[in-house]
């Protein structure tokens, strides 16, 4: 066990913060607004969907300091240990000139009521530091997690393209002073486990994964919090008492991305953003889905490991991971076991995870050459929406033109992410043809009895699921036609 | 003649100027109510809500609530010293805190007062409530089944012999269309802070479009005269109609608590609770029977507009009225009868929302136009043009007002050419012939929108202008700023009037102590009314300053002229600040209240006749979409819009209103779906489930232009026109473009029955029906 400390440390704008008293589930936004009286960051939804509370968080990643946008409303304070938190107040002094991002927003009339504006400025700021001359597509992607109800976004997108004409990103303090900030943050990581509070209001920030394993095994009633993009809502919306809280998002060992010979192995703490490069290299068929998971703030915080561990029937990653034959490594203390993902989801809200056991890594075997793969997410709104249904398809067609292997899985069609075994059965051994597809469609009714809810009716879910199989087939025979957004 | 008809550029009227708060907003330094520094010891209120859609309260046990940590007290209806009602239309059907019966899921029953918001919020869930459930009806069909009780008196507009017109028509278009509601989703939720004063006084900081109504309702609840309550309102984080009446409840609760506990009290509901408690845009089911001839000309219209009004009247009367007022859109009906049914439902009380029923009227008109066009095998645009109001004849509305300023022909012609509608439509028809999975559609729809409150007495405004001795100017008026740019426009009017740079004018919060008895900032009227009131105040001060200048310089009054930066009196130029100081030295009053009431308008609701609108604003939009016939997913590829704002006071602000209005309207009609479950609970109560547009929903090609040639025929402020609501109606073109894409599946033989919002699901189901040859 590492030594412990009772102090949570991070840097807030220019100030070093050391906290020894803290509620385990205190959110960053409440801390900023209520304790620090920094009220530029706004609460619009308290569930990480509107982006009015967007701040940047700088973290050391593999020796580099990266600033990423997150939603302060669902970020627990414990997750900020050893980071640099940058809020809207940091961009310009009260009587000084505006920051280039801010001046562009003024000149292009990017604010009306102004309530979403600080969050939008922060999202654009984060983008501009990485990409000083972004195109429309990059701006739209950076703003997937920011709602504006007034402007219709056009002036904001115009402002986003013009920022560099107001100043150089290289000259921005967060860029220019990065080396100094790296040193400061490195000093905050002193190898000690942070423990604050007692009983169910205890916050634990373990120093290493081994510490995590030991602490969690001893406190199986604790809640593990990674990006808090879902658990945050348990607190902000349902006011559940989830303590003791163990934060794990900062554990570097859980952020490993290993592109091994046979599989991509992701540490459970790898965020969607961190994984996106490796996913694009090995599973380009999943890139569109990847970019439609939440908004940027959610992808910067949320992890694949937690998406699985959470067991939601509408999680976006399980369907493709199931068809790819992914497995997870579960760890309890020093014991580890491997579980196929398809076997992990037992029933609604029930997974094959024992008390004190946590997901340590996810192993995704590469797609063998010649196999066909696709994944489709269907939502009411294209971006930052939860799936009405999400279908993943994997097929191998033998040399004789017949289906040698078929794996199909859906989210949103049942109480868990689920394989379409009857459909697979109907395809196996048949010619990979339109006639086979049509003949297999009734099998969807065997596999799935979806429900009607606010996202879609059961009739639509079933019909759209069937049509996705049609789409998959059409695309594999070169007749695919998809909506394409024509922006630069 | 309005003096501002003669324009100089000194005060920057008619020029693009950034929003007055822009620099503060981008820096996070613009203060909203929840950002204000709280008085020491401020308490926090949280509402306890009904978890049944309709029930008697058998028992309400609040002991656990009171006993919870951090709770100071709990308020119920019994704690109200005045009247337990916040009905904006004085129907006494909207209790502040429900007693005995709850009429919708989410209705406030009690208020917890705690030392922190968190403590009050947690405690609010600890009540033990025994309900005796009653039958509930949450939508139009269920309300009609339950007997069709109304929340307020319906309206009928009638002109000509409808029965004869229908009978004589060559064809009939009959159908129904369902138009969904819309949550305002102002980014800043409802919020209010009340600070108790001495005697019966309370000062309230509220996010409201209607400070006077907050004052009136709070006084009623507390049982004190209006002069005891002062409401201050600097800015809202969005309103869109949702803060016209819906803030009453929140302000009254904290005022009540502030007086009871002698401490400041703040309330800010969580987003989910805001969704559940407050009213939204009215859903409608419109049933129509339209007679038309082979040339596409409409002969007679009979239609009923049934609306989900919610549990109380609120503004459902005027909203459903305005739906009828816009059931003609830009079209002349030789004979017409339209009727409203403002139905009682067990849902939050639906309320004002940008357009105020007007957009629903416009949609109904456009749906029957489409119905006719597909039946006759014509481009719907041809049918639209065939039915436009005339300029000298065929120009009487269903409410017997003559359309005197019709420019729809020019607007539509210009947009049709500018958007290359005809070429693109031909290309789309050709594309659809060969495209198997993707289909496209294009539609150009017009809008004519009536400007004025139909309740004539609301068309008044006041302003207060001070000139200080250093020449700086203080401006207060009765309007409220919710992002729409009202304050900057009125400041431009004042700067222009005095011939001073804009930065000499400081805009102050709307305050019931400075400008009393105001109207809601609503009905797109904010600039028309308050700009004129401010100008009136300026003119009074200017006249005094002119007289002073003449006297001080010893010249004749006719030799005194305003110039930029001051006044020229004979040969002498007196800078504005010197002039102000001179007035003070000579004991000339440098402060004035201004007032304005809109001329020309009148309306007799009982007879359905009058001249309710001062003028009309016009516009048109052409939308192009692509749909995926496998999943129903779609995208808006392009929108071209042309909006008539008369002579724009601030083109950048106006373009922002048009762009934002179209996207907000497009969201309403496509992805924003309100879903109540069978228990009567709203299931789409947060952005995770209720989907307003994102940046990536905006069409990649989005051309918005103002009709720069247009000048308001009426002497409205600077000859401008209202801009808040009309552009929202332009989004109807998105629906009709989707309709064309769906219709292509059956070779355009049938007008698709598309209910709104047109979600991907509705598109796919529409495609399926086309494939099956049905509607």
From TrEMBL, chain A:
<dbReference type="InterPro" id="IPR005107">
    <property type="entry name" value="CO_DH_flav_C"/>
</dbReference>
<feature type="domain" description="FAD-binding PCMH-type">
    <location>
        <begin position="196"/>
        <end position="369"/>
    </location>
</feature>
<dbReference type="Pfam" id="PF00111">
    <property type="entry name" value="Fer2"/>
</dbReference>
<dbReference type="InterPro" id="IPR036683">
    <property type="entry name" value="CO_DH_flav_C_dom_sf"/>
</dbReference>
<dbReference type="InterPro" id="IPR036318">
    <property type="entry name" value="FAD-bd_PCMH-like_sf"/>
</dbReference>
<keyword id="KW-0479">Metal-binding</keyword>
<keyword id="KW-0408">Iron</keyword>
<dbReference type="GO" id="GO:0051537">
    <property type="term" value="F:2 iron, 2 sulfur cluster binding"/>
</dbReference>
<keyword id="KW-0274">FAD</keyword>
<keyword id="KW-0560">Oxidoreductase</keyword>
<dbReference type="InterPro" id="IPR016208">
    <property type="entry name" value="Ald_Oxase/xanthine_DH-like"/>
</dbReference>
<dbReference type="InterPro" id="IPR036010">
    <property type="entry name" value="2Fe-2S_ferredoxin-like_sf"/>
</dbReference>
<protein>
    <submittedName>
        <fullName>Xanthine dehydrogenase small subunit</fullName>
        <ecNumber>1.17.1.4</ecNumber>
    </submittedName>
</protein>
<dbReference type="InterPro" id="IPR016166">
    <property type="entry name" value="FAD-bd_PCMH"/>
</dbReference>
<dbReference type="GO" id="GO:0004854">
    <property type="term" value="F:xanthine dehydrogenase activity"/>
</dbReference>
<dbReference type="InterPro" id="IPR016167">
    <property type="entry name" value="FAD-bd_PCMH_sub1"/>
</dbReference>
<dbReference type="InterPro" id="IPR006058">
    <property type="entry name" value="2Fe2S_fd_BS"/>
</dbReference>
<dbReference type="Pfam" id="PF03450">
    <property type="entry name" value="CO_deh_flav_C"/>
</dbReference>
<feature type="domain" description="2Fe-2S ferredoxin-type">
    <location>
        <begin position="6"/>
        <end position="91"/>
    </location>
</feature>
<dbReference type="InterPro" id="IPR014307">
    <property type="entry name" value="Xanthine_DH_ssu"/>
</dbReference>
<dbReference type="InterPro" id="IPR012175">
    <property type="entry name" value="Xanth_DH_ssu_bac"/>
</dbReference>
<dbReference type="InterPro" id="IPR002888">
    <property type="entry name" value="2Fe-2S-bd"/>
</dbReference>
From TrEMBL, chain B:
<dbReference type="InterPro" id="IPR036856">
    <property type="entry name" value="Ald_Oxase/Xan_DH_a/b_sf"/>
</dbReference>
<keyword id="KW-0001">2Fe-2S</keyword>
<keyword id="KW-0408">Iron</keyword>
<keyword id="KW-0560">Oxidoreductase</keyword>
<dbReference type="GO" id="GO:0051537">
    <property type="term" value="F:2 iron, 2 sulfur cluster binding"/>
</dbReference>
<feature type="compositionally biased region" description="Basic and acidic residues">
    <location>
        <begin position="12"/>
        <end position="22"/>
    </location>
</feature>
<dbReference type="GO" id="GO:0004854">
    <property type="term" value="F:xanthine dehydrogenase activity"/>
</dbReference>
<dbReference type="InterPro" id="IPR037165">
    <property type="entry name" value="AldOxase/xan_DH_Mopterin-bd_sf"/>
</dbReference>
<dbReference type="Pfam" id="PF02738">
    <property type="entry name" value="MoCoBD_1"/>
</dbReference>
<dbReference type="Pfam" id="PF01315">
    <property type="entry name" value="Ald_Xan_dh_C"/>
</dbReference>
<dbReference type="InterPro" id="IPR000674">
    <property type="entry name" value="Ald_Oxase/Xan_DH_a/b"/>
</dbReference>
<feature type="region of interest" description="Disordered">
    <location>
        <begin position="1"/>
        <end position="26"/>
    </location>
</feature>
<dbReference type="GO" id="GO:0030151">
    <property type="term" value="F:molybdenum ion binding"/>
</dbReference>
<dbReference type="GO" id="GO:0005506">
    <property type="term" value="F:iron ion binding"/>
</dbReference>
<dbReference type="Pfam" id="PF20256">
    <property type="entry name" value="MoCoBD_2"/>
</dbReference>
<comment type="similarity">
    <text>Belongs to the xanthine dehydrogenase family.</text>
</comment>
<keyword id="KW-0500">Molybdenum</keyword>
<dbReference type="InterPro" id="IPR008274">
    <property type="entry name" value="AldOxase/xan_DH_MoCoBD1"/>
</dbReference>
<dbReference type="InterPro" id="IPR016208">
    <property type="entry name" value="Ald_Oxase/xanthine_DH-like"/>
</dbReference>
<protein>
    <submittedName>
        <fullName>Xanthine dehydrogenase molybdopterin binding subunit</fullName>
        <ecNumber>1.17.1.4</ecNumber>
    </submittedName>
</protein>
<keyword id="KW-0479">Metal-binding</keyword>
<keyword id="KW-0411">Iron-sulfur</keyword>
